Amino acid sequence: MPAHSILPHHVHDAPGPVPRGAHLPARRTEAGPVPDRSRAAWAVPACVGAVLFLYTVFLSHDNGFSQAGGWLLGLAVAVIATGIGYVLVRERNAMIPEARALSYGVLAGVTIGFLHSVSGGTWLRSLGIGLACGVLVGLLSYDVFHWNERHEHH
What values do phi and psi take at 14, rounded to 5? Predict the structure, then answer.
């Protein structure tokens, strides 16, 4: 019996079969990490964009926007947030955990702050809520990314 088989959490470095569900490291080329082109890279931002679209339209119609203005605002929010979210998810292999967490925190904070302003909140209160949400999402994201990176190497 090989000695490495009795050690817990040993990662086999040699080529061979990979268990189903195992997390593989990011593929790298000479140019750097390969962008993520999986289904989640476009499906998650698209779903979040659809929810943001509907929620923005709902908020804008409840707070004095015209019918067309509400739909256009919702479309603009959805397109911008989906585009930025897609880039963040697609390029996540190229970013260190700190940059990823900061990016997700900024996107979440700006989005929540803007939605609060659309709902009729003052700009100062919207700024505070967006900042608080962004810091919270950034810290939680950093913890998740750092924890995953730390445990992938064990």
Answer: -85, 160
